[in-house]
Amino acid sequence: MTRLAGTLVIAALLAALPLATQSDFVLTILVFAFLQGMVAVSFNLVFGYAGQLSMFHAAAFGIAAYATHLFMQHLGVGYWGGVLLGATLVAAISVVVGAICFRFRLREFYFAVVTLAFSEMARLTVLNWNSMTNGSLGINLQEKATLWIPGMGVTRIESTVGWYYLALAALGLTLLACWRLVHSWMGRAFAAIRLNDELGDTLGINVFRYKLVAFVAGSVMAAFAGSLYAYFLGSLEPGYLSIDQSLGIIAMVLLGGRSAVAAPVVGALVLTALPHLINFSAEVRSMVYGAILIFTILVMPQGIYGTFAQLLRRRHA
Amino acid sequence: MLEVRALTKRFGGLTAVSEVSFAIAKGEIVGIFGPNGSGKTTLLNLIAGLARPSTGEIVWKGTDIAGWQAHEIAATGLVKTFQNPQLFSELTALEHLLIAGHLALKRRMGWRRLATLFGREQISVDERARAVLALCRLESAREARAAELSYGEEKMLGVAMGLMCDPELLLLDEPASGLGAEEIESLENVLRDLKREGMTLCVIDHKVGFLRKLADRAISLHHGAKIAEGTPEEVLSNPDVVTAYLGRAHAAI
Asked: pTM for the whole thing?
């Protein structure tokens, strides 16, 4: 009950925030943090809960971003039509990639390497398919995201405040979906796969099926984040699918923590906000970034969220 | 109920299980004896789908299940426990049982269980878990994490997880190995309770001891082949079995 109350208070505070500050700077950082948070939370479903170190997550994010634009341009669908088709495409690709990896029982390091190879295939396709993707130059998105709002009809989302609420709602839905999954019988199957899949197998859990479900569900959530992110930023570039992105996602999860559904959001907030708050040169920034990550892994292996949760529990006990 | 016909498993040049045939009828407790390396565990792994037989048939309720995957076999009611306790390290005993309730839930709800993900229906395997904890004398360990359990509790939790699958035939791989006298007695009582409930059991035992009183029938393996079958007393007094266990010199004395 206290957890529900806490969640509602945080949600209410975040919803009320634009009343307190109209600062474009603050709201923009938060929109990026929320969308990155969505990616990190969905990655944690695959990695933290089902135990599969997918390097395909950034690819799912980037493929959906490009696909949304291409579907809108070539099929004449609206923004949300593009988003849904993009997510469907990512789901289909993830089923194929996941089925190949899990059918061959690739685990841990081998799974990571093979998903990375698939991710690179996607990135190189985007990079070289000039007629569709404009290669390394990327695409400036002319079309805008729209949303049907009661009383206002279909409205373009252009203000930062508008994006703030859209991103907040998207993050909220992602958290809710992951929370429901993790605390269900399916979440228990994910835990079995992560902790001892041979035992799970003898207990009648179809390891292949639930690994695939976790992988595809996580990728589809990342796809939604990618489609939103691209249209907030207003541009597409192959860097969306890069290994740097994948590593950034892992960093957010390690920093925030793996033990709770919302923990990676903390990592996303810190890593998104930090570069803007501290005005280091690029080289120094990378070093600070790396130092923080190493410090967290060594000193707070449960991440920021996990460490604080433990401190709170100890005080109550 | 279960009929194994000429089951053979070769690992390269080594024949771990050689042309073994036997049957298990409903409600029986069948003991499998044999010295270390006689192929007992491999035999059970073949039946449970953890290894693929080289040749032979495993007919379970009228269907040949040789070569099926472990989870498919478990879903038909044929469940195996491990000799060295296999657990989900960071979870509590109760959480282990809830995970093991997967099949029961699947059988009870089928695809309808997907609807529970959207919160329209609350489902619970808690009651069954509580009953199994009681049956296995694990109530006091309910909230204990796997790492905090004693070896005996770990092994019993393995049996409890098997029971959560609602098995018709439970294969127990050396449930008594490494246990103290009191723990073995407790295990005997659990197995007796199961027999009373009509459960069919196939139990491996390396030490010839506790199964003598419990098993209806025994089979003895040596070098992967069946060398004797009958009541436990018959099997244990069989000269070939004595030789296999003690070596020829002792047998002569």
From this structure: 0.92
